[in-house]
Amino acid sequence: MLKVIHTADIHLDSPFSLGNAETSALRREELRDMFRRLCRYAGDQKTDLVLIAGDLFDRKFVTKNTIDLVVKEFAALPEIRFVITPGNHDYYAPDSIWTKTVFPENVTIFKSESVERASFDIRGQKVDVYGYAFTSISMDHCPFTEYQAEDPDAINILVAHGNMLQKNAEDCPITLADIRSTNFDYVALGHIHNLHEITSEDDQWYGYCGSPEPRDFGETGWHGIYTLDMNKTDEGFFCKPQFVKMATRRYMVETLNVTGAEQSDAILEAARKLLSERDYQDETLLRMKFVGEIAPSAQVPTAEIKALATHLAYIEVVDETAPLFDFDYLSADPTIRGAYFRQLLPMLKSSDLREREVASMALRYGLSVLSGEELPEL
Known about the structure:
- The chain is of the alpha/beta class and 378 residues long.
- The chain is 28% helix and 26% strand.
- The protein is built from 9 helices and 15 strands.
- The strands form 3 sheets. Strands 4-3-2-1-11-12 form a 6-stranded mixed β-sheet, with no helix packed on it. A 6-stranded mixed β-sheet has the order 5-6-7-8-10-9, with no helix packed on it.
């Protein structure tokens, strides 16, 4: 039985845009720690083959220390074959990491936009791994359409970095028809960071593994890798995929509709209730988004909400509420309040969302000033 790990989109040394430099630096180190654990896990599980389907590095930001770390971890596991296809964020080029770094003999790196093959004999089973490389930041075609593996008796694997979610993409558009036109047993996909289930049609398996350590609030939930037990006999190809959590942290987004809130205390209570109902511990980076129409006297109490969540790794409060005004009353108001409202009315009715948001904020602040009230928080 062949033991395989499928991973991709690690993006070592990727910048993290969180609330402060300290938290971002911590996340970068946690990303390196995750890579160390991934390699240790591969060794402990006696893995035969690790497939890295693109974007191991973030080439704009990668440091020599991180490259040295990767080389060291690969070299410490000489019994494991690491097969890498460079992606759009770490593409193969004359001045790239791949050409400037000496990798151990157990590492195979694809170098061309055309499909290449690497052959192995593992546990008495012939294994052919095919792949290609981005050679620039973009690729407007699928290199493997109708490609046929050379030896149908081997376990035939394709490692592919590309986009199955968007037609006419500039980052290697791939369709299900492209995959089905080949005779690969397993297609290890990379580039889409959110987890997708590994699936099969007939004896052909394919799927995205997602990023093993999420990088932002677009990558919510637990992330990890896929381990796969593979075998091929006269009866066909066998594959058993299993998701393994690998991430140090998880990003979560919660949206609270606080429409009708008349005081800030009501919004604070809604936040307190949500946090008490969720089992969020120190591994969670949380974005709490507030939406809905609230009274002009109410505001989202950002500081107080953050004080409720000191047990979390990070919390971000996003105020997308809009003030709930009595438009009929303000339209007829003969005072300066009414005049101010009527001046903003065309913008409040604009078809441009951003213009409406600015006008709504201006009205909220203007009426607060005219009423002698404390200004809402920015």
